[in-house]
From TrEMBL:
Residues 1-107 form the Semialdehyde dehydrogenase dimerisation domain. PANTHER family: ASPARTATE-SEMIALDEHYDE DEHYDROGENASE, DEHYDROGENASE, PUTATIVE-RELATED. GO terms for biological process: amino acid biosynthetic process. GO terms for molecular function: oxidoreductase activity, acting on the aldehyde or oxo group of donors, NAD or NADP as acceptor; protein dimerization activity. This is Semialdehyde dehydrogenase dimerisation domain-containing protein. InterPro entries: Semialdhyde_DH_dimer_dom (IPR012280). Pfam families: Semialdhyde_dhC (PF02774).
Length: 126
């Protein structure tokens, strides 16, 4: 539930419909989440992958044939968050996606985010 609450708080959308699963397993220091989103407009998973691949702070890791997908072990020690397993969500149809995310909680989850927020606040072009 914490992920749902934090998402609503960060986006300032108290009524935002959020459904996700956070699995807590022993890992070195990375978190992993299975996320389902509903979009206002239809979205193709391939288009979403393109957007994610070009997003700052995101590493698209989504090549099942090569057995490359987000994993806590490979996300540890990285500033970028690994995102993959991007696919259409059957519940929301053309307006929904499922994805899997892994990120280093010490780098991206705490210290780096604080620095990035401070930089954004101080940036006159933000």
């Amino acid at each position: 539930m914490k992920v749902c609450w934090e998402t609503r708080k960060i986006l300032e959308e108290p009524d935002l419909k959020v459904s996700c699963t956070a699995v807590r397993i022993p890992t070195y220091r990375a978190h992993a989440e299975a996320i389902t989103i509903e979009t206002e407009k239809p979205i193709d998973p391939k288009e979403a992958q393109t957007v994610l691949a070009n997003a700052i702070g995101v590493e698209l890791t989504d090549d099942l044939d090569a057995k490359k997908y987000p994993m806590p072990l490979t996300a540890t020690g990285k500033y970028d968050v690994e995102v993959g397993r991007v696919r259409r969500n059957d519940v929301f149809g053309e307006n929904g996606l499922d994805l899997f995310v892994c990120g280093d909680q010490l780098l991206r989850g705490a210290a780096l985010n604080a620095v990035l927020v401070a930089e954004a606040v101080l940036d006159p072009n933000f």
